[in-house]
Amino acid sequence: xxxxxxxxxxxxxxxxxxxxxxxxxxxxxxxxxxxxxxxxxxxxxxxxxxxxxxxxxxxxxxxxxxxxxxxxxxxxxxxxxxxxxxxxxxxxxxxxxxxxxxxxxxxxxxxxxxxxxxxxxxxxxxxxxxxxxxxxxxxxxxxxxxxxxxxxxxxxxxxxxxxxxxxxxxxxxxxxxxxxxxxxxxxxxxxxxxxxxxxxxxxxxxxx
Length: 208
Prior knowledge:
It contains six helices and 14 strands. It is α/β, with parallel strands linked by helices. It has one domain (about 1-205): 4-Layer Sandwich (Metallo-beta-lactamase, Chain A), CATH 3.60.15. The chain has a six-stranded mixed beta sheet with strand order 1-2-3-4-5-6, with helices on one face. Strands 7-8-9-10-13-14 form a six-stranded mixed beta sheet. A hairpin with a 2-residue loop joins strand 9 (about 135-140) and strand 10 (about 145-150). The radius of gyration is 16 Å and the shape is globular. About 40% of the residues are buried.
């Protein structure tokens, strides 16, 4: 498995291109920019892009999905519970980034807890982690977790926006993510990677 990290969009979100090196099939986890430069960077890898999997429906993680659908013919998956967030994208763009609003129209596939996606020889398992949003989703590939804005290095996603819940995010992290092996490497939606072992010792969720 080859992981390429692209930091893109108005709030520097991490976009992860995960490539099965045997087949060159790939999945993109989050898609925060429609800029031509991002399209070209992904094109230059020569991968066969199979899916876009969203960790949640906030604008800063999905602004590129319509363009990627147009260019690559690829479908995007999000938890159905987060379609409310998708519909709020124009308002959120103006409120948090002062951007001209756009509507996202290409998301029509849903992912739920326990769903699995095949990318070459890789199996991607969806883990529902509500809290940051109602439909927050993490993706596990072997001993590697893509946590979106549920958990960062040392902290958790904010829960004071529409659909957020402190009780839910505490439950998601303590009873789902912290049950994973300590050596699991975690790639969050913003910032540097971490491990489950580190977060069980130092994450702010311990004291919340």
